[in-house]
């Protein structure tokens, strides 16, 4: 049986790492794995094994003709137009991953799909409440600590902006920024003294970092020994809003831009700071940090309560928007800045095994068995 994944994203993020993990797990199960991707997405060569077939398109409208009439198992990894999904549904076993929770979202895009596979229990609960046909368990995911590019470079300051070339403002700023970067002295990463917190993530709206740090900045201001290093890039508005939220503690904060050597990032900080939970489906960076031996600080709410064992692989705290950060400060006062408070692998092993490649492959195997039965009885 062939698994045809569709992911037309042009920027690499957690969903693209998930797509690669799914392709490799499918190959492990003996399935013929194929990916339909966008022609302007340059990163798949570094993410996928050469055995994974890739077919490039420029528009989702090309997909129905590309797949033809022979029934196939199609797994959509990122949203595409509803009319395309409705064209595919009568001819193929059309399924989808759900990489976003239903919080402030409509479930309508999932209506054409025979089955939807959630990446967490939090996502599953939202789909179930919306009466969407949802798989019996969360598929979760796996941490991927491989370098994000073939050319591994030392960590030094890069642009914190991910310019959207469709916008005139971004095209203008994006034109001048390389000139500014070329004139700026190289700034290699050097850890500063004190307790080092880190953000390792794309600075996207779903992470809600501006709202989080607006609540945490007064706490951080009372602890000048706490440093915050931000590794990631985002849109102009996302970065602008985050800088505004962190303005009261600007001297404690450094922006390093997107980096390729993610393992070294987790190992260079004391604790990873996760974003707010409502719009977060899983948080691959949360899994990556734990796999690298770095504990995570996150709100005590799904999906983080699914992916972190409090006191073992991280520390959970109450919503700082409700208690003015008092519980976060309680946790902060107990943290160690000597690099020794790492994940205890022996205590964490059973938890982290849930997010291993073997566990993910087993869960995907159950899905593949269902898909094979559906195709045979169609």
Explain this structure.
There is one protein chain. The protein is an alpha/beta fold and 378 residues long. It has 15 helices and twelve strands. The protein has helices at residues 14-28, 44-47, 63-67, 82-88, 121-129, 168-183, 209-221, 236-246, 262-268, 284-291, 304-307, 320-323, 326-333, 345-353, 357-377; strands at residues 2-7, 32-38, 53-57, 73-76, 93-98, 115-118, 195-200, 226-231, 253-255, 271-273, 295-299, 314-317. The strands form two sheets. A six-stranded parallel sheet has the order 3-2-1-4-5-6. Strands 9-8-7-10-11-12 form a six-stranded parallel sheet, with helices on both faces. Helix 1 packs across helix 15 and helix 7 runs parallel beside helix 8.
Compact description:
The protein has 378 residues and is an alpha/beta fold. It has helices at residues 14-28, 44-47, 63-67, 82-88, 121-129, 168-183, 209-221, 236-246, 262-268, 284-291, 304-307, 320-323, 326-333, 345-353, 357-377, and strands at residues 2-7, 32-38, 53-57, 73-76, 93-98, 115-118, 195-200, 226-231, 253-255, 271-273, 295-299, 314-317.
Summary keywords:
378 residues; alpha/beta; six-stranded parallel sheet
How do the strands and helices of this protein lay out in sequence?
Elements: E1 2-7, H1 14-28, E2 32-38, H2 44-47, E3 53-57, H3 63-67, E4 73-76, H4 82-88, E5 93-98, E6 115-118, H5 121-129, H6 168-183, E7 195-200, H7 209-221, E8 226-231, H8 236-246, E9 253-255, H9 262-268, E10 271-273, H10 284-291, E11 295-299, H11 304-307, E12 314-317, H12 320-323, H13 326-333, H14 345-353, H15 357-377
Parallel strand pairs: 1-2, 1-4, 2-3, 4-5, 5-6, 7-8, 7-10, 8-9, 10-11, 11-12
């Amino acid at each position: 049986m062939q698994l045809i994944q569709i992911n037309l994203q042009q920027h690499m993020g957690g969903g693209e790492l998930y797509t690669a993990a799914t392709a490799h797990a499918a190959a492990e199960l003996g399935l013929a794995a194929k990916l339909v991707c966008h022609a302007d997405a340059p990163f798949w060569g570094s993410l996928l094994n050469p055995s994974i077939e890739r077919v490039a398109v420029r528009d989702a409208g090309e997909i129905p003709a590309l797949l033809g009439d022979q029934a196939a198992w199609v797994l959509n990894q990122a949203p595409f137009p509803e009319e395309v999904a409705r064209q595919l549904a009568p001819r193929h076993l059309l399924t989808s991953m759900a990489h976003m929770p239903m919080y402030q979202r409509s479930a309508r895009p999932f209506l054409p799909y025979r089955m939807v596979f959630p990446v967490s229990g939090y996502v599953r609960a939202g789909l179930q409440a919306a009466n969407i046909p949802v798989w019996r368990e969360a598929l979760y995911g796996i941490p991927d600590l491989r370098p994000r590019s073939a050319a591994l470079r030392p960590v030094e300051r890069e642009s914190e902006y991910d310019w959207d070339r469709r916008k005139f403002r971004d095209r203008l700023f994006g034109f001048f920024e390389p000139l500014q970067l070329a004139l700026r002295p190289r700034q290699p990463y050097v850890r500063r003294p004190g307790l080092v917190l880190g953000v390792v993530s794309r600075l996207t709206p779903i992470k809600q970092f501006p709202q989080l740090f607006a609540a945490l900045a007064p706490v951080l201001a009372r602890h000048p020994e706490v440093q915050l290093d931000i590794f990631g890039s985002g849109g102009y508005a996302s970065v602008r809003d985050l800088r505004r939220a962190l303005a009261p503690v600007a001297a404690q904060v450094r922006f390093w831009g997107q980096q390729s050597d993610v393992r070294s990032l987790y190992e260079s900080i004391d604790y990873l700071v996760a974003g707010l939970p409502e719009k977060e489906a899983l948080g691959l960076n949360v899994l990556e940090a734990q796999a690298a031996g770095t504990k995570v600080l996150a709100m005590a709410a799904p999906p983080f309560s699914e992916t972190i064992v409090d006191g073992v692989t991280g520390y959970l705290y109450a919503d700082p928007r409700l208690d003015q950060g008092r519980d976060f400060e309680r946790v902060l006062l107990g943290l160690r800045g000597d690099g020794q408070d790492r994940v205890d692998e022996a205590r964490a092993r059973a938890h982290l095994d849930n997010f291993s490649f073997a566990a993910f492959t087993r869960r995907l195997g159950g899905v593949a068995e269902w898909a094979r039965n559906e195709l045979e009885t169609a």
